[in-house]
Amino acid sequence: MQDTSPSVPDFTQWPSFPFEGDLHVKQLDEPVLVEPPRRGEGNRECTACNAPDEAYIWVGERWRVRAMDRPTGLPMVLILESRSHLDLGDLPNLLAAELGVMTVRLERAIRSLDGVARVHVNRWGDGSAHLHMWFLARPYGRLQLRGTFLSLWDSILPPISEAQWRENLAMVAAWLAEFGGRPLAEPPRIQWQAPSSFNAASTGGATEEPEEEIASVIEAADEIPEAEEAEERATPEQAEHPDRASEPEQVGQRDRAGTPERPEVPQQAAAPEQVEQPQRAETP
Ligand SMILES: [Zn+2]
Q1: Which of 91, 166, 167, 239 pairs as cysteine with 96 (C-beta 3.0–4.6 A)?
Q2: Domains of the chain by range and CATH?
Q3: Would the pLDDT of 30 be above 80?
Q4: Counting Cβ atoms within 10 Å, is residue 143 exposed (0-12), middle (13-18) or buried (19+)?
Q5: Distance, CA 67 to ligand 1 centroid (Å)?
Q6: Closest alpha carbon to 25 in 5, 3, 48, 49
Q7: 221 alpha carbon to ligand 1 midpoint, in Å?
């Protein structure tokens, strides 16, 4: 029907593929010999380590959950982060086991929201060295959003209402807090108002707001502008925040300073049932 070049793969014909028309496969760049450092690697600042608890919707001793800075097209988009500056493959057994527990818990919390059919869990990690897992909710009934293009659709769908968004965030935060930690239902920073100024056509890039670290669900979008990003990081907007002064335990915050990891923290402080698994996990 459409005379796309023969090299365009079949998935461009799938109902879930968000685009139509005449498509061409991009020319691939030559591979680089040495990849540039991600955020939180080499001499690059770590956004996660620098972010105060107030930027999150829920915080625990070893994990934090954050939302985007404004309503998303999908009914819920959240990021689970370890406090410690570690990447997925570097998690010690305790944290690895807890990651499983937190993943299940968060999935269930998001799936319990009205209008959510499924929760996709993703980890890319190409932009930041600090472990962060994405949780993307697929709206119920939207069969066309099934599968791997869900993250693209988030930028295409009109954002949900701010009221709904905040309510959803508060519900998830409260759900997590049942197991410990602190709900900070108020989402990150800046009061985002006038959601009506968004329209269906807004594609991530259409945001007139000052650039925040996470503007889109599409991870590449938060990593590709490598050069600008690096500069922005130099002036972290968290500066105005009254910095977790009241928090006795900012375990992760200073990790990146030098000490590679310190997953010691009192074990059963946050969620008692998380503590069993590690033993079993490490078969001698
Ligand atoms: Zn970090």
Answers
A1: 91
A2: 49-184 (3.30.428.10)
A3: yes
A4: exposed
A5: 17
A6: 5
A7: 19
